[in-house]
Amino acid sequence: MYLAMNRFRILPGKESQFEDVWRNRKSRLDDVPGFVEFHLMKGPETDGKTLYASHTIWESEADFVAWTKSENFRAAHKNAGSNDRLYDGHPQFEGFSVVEGA
């Protein structure tokens, strides 16, 4: 199993707009081999910004990498730059492989 996470710092007052972008997007993840599940998580306010994290769980890191090179990925992210006014900087990516699990 592989967990891919992007962390976002959202500008004050832009939280609802950010959440709407995610609710209304066409992720195309259900069409991708190896995709297991997705969650958008809201965290605390830190340094005047609200933290969010998107988590996708994959059967393997190879499945995730294949997704990032796919036409579905390009289509799902084609408008990502149009929401820059919501963010404080670029998202921070982190990927994790399972060491131990139940």
CATH architecture name: 2-Layer Sandwich
Q: Count of helical segments?
A: 3
Alpha-carbon distance between the two ends? 12 Å
Q: Let me know the number of strands.
A: 4
GO molecular function, one term: monooxygenase activity
Organism: Pikeienuella piscinae
Keywords: Monooxygenase, Oxidoreductase
InterPro entries: ABM_dom, Dimeric_a/b-barrel, Heme-degrading_MO
Your description of this structure?
The chain is built from three helices and four strands. The protein has about 100 residues and is α+β, with helices and mostly antiparallel strands. It has one domain: Alpha-Beta Plaits. It has a four-stranded antiparallel beta sheet with strand order 2-3-1-4. Strand 2 and strand 3 (about 50-60) form a beta hairpin. It starts with a strand and ends in a 5-residue tail after the last strand.
